[in-house]
# Entry
Amino acid sequence: MEMKRGSTRTVGIGVGTTLEALQQAYGAEGLQPARSGTYVMPVEGRQGWQYEFTVDTGKVAGMAVVNRDIKCV
# Structure
């Protein structure tokens, strides 16, 4: 996953990365716990969009870029 342009770090966050490593990499850039097992971080310059990391048993299990305000019909 390509993280936001201008990120202060270049890191290899992916499936299997520990929660601790995820928090160290992006905690200062707005990573926050959301619903159970999910951490989110805003996408800079893209209002409403966020990076979403699903965490299971202390490791990243999935990643997505989402906009929860968009409704599909």
